[in-house]
Amino acid sequence: MVSGAELRETHVGIVMLIGDRAYKMKKPVRTGFLDFSTLELRREVLRRELELNRRLSPDVYLGISDVSAPRPDGAPADVAEHLLVMRRMPADRRLATLLTTGADLSGPLRELARLMARFHAGAARGPAVNAEGSQDALRERWRDNIAETRAIPGAPLDDTAIDVIERLSMRFIDGRGPLFAHRIADDRIVDGHGDLIADDVFFLDDGPRVLDCLEFDDRLRYVDALDDVAFLAMDLERLGAPDRAAEFLVAYTAFSGDPAPSALRHHYTAYRAFVRTKVACLRHGQGDSAAAQTALEYAEVARRHLERGAVRLALVGGLPGTGKTTIAGGLADRFGAVVLSSDRIRKELAGINPTARAGAAYREGLYSAEHTEALYRELLDRAGELLSRGESVILDASWTSALHRQEAEKLAKHTHSELIQLECRTSTETAVQRLRTRPVGSSDATAEIAAAMAAADEWSDAMIVDTSGPVEESLRHAAPAWQALSWPPRRHPRPHCPSRTNLW
Questions:
Q1: Each residue of 290-348: pLDDT tens digit?
Q2: What's the pTM?
Q3: Alpha-carbon Rg of the chain, whole angstroms?
Q4: Which InterPro entries match (predicted)?
Q5: Separation CA 275–CA 295 (nearest Å)
Q6: Are strands 463-466 and 418-425 parallel, antiparallel or unpaired?
Q7: 87, 57 contact by CB (below 8 A)
Q8: Whether 318 contacts 405, CB under 8 Å
Q9: CATH class entry, domain 312-503
Q10: Residues 6 or more apart whose Cβ sits within 8 Å of residue 409
Q11: Could you give the count of Cα atoms lying within 13 Å of 195 in the half-sphere of its Cβ?
Q12: How many angstroms separate the CA atoms of 43 and 65, rounded?
């Protein structure tokens, strides 16, 4: 439903709503990332806006009109300004508005996800576009946005908050070279929308309309397709609809067939939140006092997703029967990590079915020093490949050797991943009972082998997880170690728990 005349203003433009039309003009401004300072530059950017937005909403973007100023001498009028003429969208069908009304948006968001997947499938690609999806290009964009935000006079965001965001973002990027190279090889970098927010999406009876793509700098529109849609997911979350954000991303990845790790979704969501942080800081600098709170909210979204998307390498160890495999699986289910099991990989390397029995005395047969060294090398090699591609990894093994743990720490540093160390412990009686009654699986450990392993190197850097009680209780105690981020890693307190040597 079209209403009366309105005037709206942003930090770079003015929109006049009159009848069933919207007229958009650019302000004669120049910033660190755009230049609208001359009439010619403003016409060119409006022409590009018309062309680019017709890709998604051709029936909304109608053309360009010139505003002329009459001359007293009767000569032909001079063009005073250029306007982009658009079909006016009904305000009550705006996504940002619908979120406040309690409307059921599951269907419309699914249609929007389908539209964006189709748009990205047909979007322009090529060497120039791919270059902006590289590890170095993403690092440069982050650094530029961070530097520009720091330089805004009176910005509401303090240096400490920016420092945390910078450290987390660089840590992810620095360790993920193969991930970004794979995204380029998989043709995931596109000429996208570049500025997808809830204020610019309208759900009409005949389908969604997406407006106002980024037009002033092509490089900022050349992005990973997942980065493009993460912008809207971020905005939905900031507007109090995190479940809708998750629904939208799940639907988009299904329609687009995108196998990206969850860490990359979190990272791009954080990046988009920080872009809006910068914009809100600029608006605050132009006199919009309410933008200060907006900037803080966006910055909090950025920090939260950077923490969730941090890539982690978790060592979950302990003697046989202490429940380390159960804890490893529970953490993987809770946090979306990949589990690599030493018991299964040991037999894979030997060409044996994982469930076949291959028992031997302590440090003999498949459990000899030679086989064990090969096992840990393989575990860490596989983990390194996964970490570099953005997957968090849990390594389920005994981890009784300090040398093996040192190699894992080196891998975490090399891949800029968080290292988490958990040692499972329980009583002798519980461990023996578990070993005697557990179903046939890939482990061949016995109580006698566990007793021989008990004299292994002390694991002083690990957080001890007492697994004597219910599994959920053990996981509840282990979860904070996964969620905590620290540089350098902290030493965990040693709770009252059976010592390893007193177990046997």
A1: 999 999 999 999 999 999 999 999 999 998 888 999 999 999 999 999 999 998 998 88
A2: 0.85
A3: 28
A4: Cell-binding_unc_protein, Kinase-like_dom_sf, P-loop_NTPase
A5: 10
A6: parallel
A7: no
A8: no
A9: alpha beta
A10: 419
A11: 17
A12: 10
